[in-house]
Structure formats: C-alpha cells, structure tokens
Write a structure and sequence with these properties.
The two termini are 42 Å apart. About 2% of the residues have low confidence. The chain is 32% helix and 21% strand. The chain has 276 residues and is an alpha+beta fold. A 6-stranded mixed beta sheet has the order 4-7-8-9-10-11, sandwiched between helices.
C-alpha cells in the first residue's frame, strides 16, 4: 500500500458506513497494534471485513470472556495433540476468508479448528497472507454475552446478528464448516449449528452442559465444568496437608512427584512420539 494512500486513512476518523479496499483493511488492522481506537468509548481490538468492504469492529473482550475463549482453545489444543489430529487450533486473532456470495469476507471466530487435510495442504501464501485461495475451518466457536441490554429489542438484535453470522457467513455455500457453537457463559446458554442431510443450516439450543464433538471432533468433549471454574472466582479446595504425589510413567517407568510434570512428559515423550 502506497504511503499516500496510508496518509489518507485517519484512524481517529474512520467511516464505518463506507467500504474499504482489502489493502486498506489490512493496513488499518496492522495499525491497531500500535494505536488505540474506540467506538462509543469501547476499545476495538481489530476489524473484520465483510463482502461489501465494510469494516466490522471487534471490541476488546472483557477478561472473563477472554478467559473462557482461552479455556476452549486450551481444551481443543490438548485434544488435537493427544489424539494425534494434526490439525490447527486458532483464536480470534486468526482470520479466514469465508468468501460469501463470491466476495472476500474476512471473519475471525473466537475459536476454531482446521482439519489436518486442510491445514497440511495450505500454500505459503495461504499460511502467511490473506491473498491465497480461500479456506475455512471445520469448527467455529463464538463466545458472547447474548443479552447485553435491558431493552428487549436490543437483546434480540445481539442474538440475531450472531445467528445470521453463523447461518449466512460461517455456513455460507462452499465453506467447510461442519459445526458451529455459540456459547454465552454469563447467562449459561449455548447453541449448536450444523447442516442437515440436504445442506440446510439449522440451530438448536443445547442445555448448559458438556458438548460432545461427535464424529466431527471424534473423542472431544467440551468440558463446561472447567469453563464454569474459570469464571466462578472460587478456588477449588486443596489438600494442604498432602505431600507431593509419587507417580510412575506406565510407558517408561520414569518417576514424577507431580501431575503436571508427568502429563508434560507423557505428552512429549509418548503421545507425540507415536505420531512421529
């Protein structure tokens, strides 16, 4: 992007009602790493880019929301390694081109999983830029407070906007998304999005509890109890009188005095070793 074009972009006077070229979108997001941008007093972390070229602000997450996202990413990451999936797990800093209606549409789910078959065949251009052929994850997850205002109409709009994002962008024609999760930890609600046999997207509300990855994420279960622990601010009881554990690795008989060291050893020396 030329220096003259850069000078025309004032981060303090962005017009969210106009369209921006993809190059300007990339430049603006890059500048947000070094500058503060606010909308109605709320700091914006980065922008998404819709099919019409409009900038979609992504406000910075509150600490509880980000803690939930981090826990979900951790659970997905552990499953990915421990079961030898060979895929990739990303957070909201990882954007994808969902190519809605034949137009480039950059969206960044709070968490996502890309299968090995997709990830291992990406080109260097796809891995390091947004300029390669579009590709999308297998699973997308959004974490949001779906009730943000006491006004009934505003409540509905928050949920409707997210619902449309899943149905018409994440599950747009041609994407490889097979499952979507919308999780509202504050109000303990969650919804699952999938395609039926005819390819039509449907949504169903799931009771507040663990979610099975089914055949899409085989062997994975999203542990909601651990999410609740993260945001509860209550400490789990500890056995202060109990001294260090004595653990022997069943594979090599190495000795460990705590579970963390044992798990780290087992994952690195045995699980990853089997994958290789």
């Amino acid at each position: 992007m030329s220096s003259k074009a850069q000078q025309k972009i004032d981060l303090n006077d962005l017009d969210l009602n106009r369209s921006y070229t993809f190059e300007k979108f990339e430049y603006i997001n890059d500048q947000l790493k070094y500058h503060t941008f606010e909308i109605n007093g709320q700091p914006v972390n980065l922008f998404e880019h819709d099919k019409n070229g409009n900038l979609i602000p992504m406000p910075q997450a509150t600490i509880n929301m980000e803690a939930v996202v981090s826990e979900i990413v951790r659970q997905l990451g552990n499953w990915n390694v421990q079961t030898g999936q060979g895929g990739a797990v990303t957070s909201s800093q990882g954007g994808f081109n969902f190519h809605v209606g034949g137009r480039r549409t950059i969206r960044a789910p709070d968490a996502s999983f890309i299968s090995k078959n997709v990830y291992r065949h990406l080109t260097q251009q796809q891995l390091w830029t947004f300029k390669g052929e579009p590709f999308t994850p297998m699973v997308v997850i959004e974490v949001s407070d779906t009730i943000k205002d006491s006004d009934t109409n505003k409540k509905k709009k928050v949920f409707d906007d997210l619902d449309e994002k899943f149905k018409f962008e994440y599950f747009a024609m041609g994407t490889s998304v097979q499952m979507g999760l919308l999780i509202d930890p504050k109000n303990e609600r969650m919804w699952i999005y999938k395609r039926n046999e005819k390819g039509k997207v449907f949504r169903r509300e799931h009771t507040w509890g663990d979610i099975d990855g089914e055949d899409i994420l085989p062997g994975f279960t999203l542990d909601v109890e651990m999410i609740k622990d993260i945001i509860s601010q209550k400490s789990r009881p500890t056995e202060t009188s109990k001294k260090s554990e004595s653990l022997n690795c069943p594979k090599c008989n190495n000795h460990f005095t705590d579970y963390h060291s044992f798990m780290k050893h087992f994952e690195k020396s045995h699980i990853r070793e089997q994958k290789g």
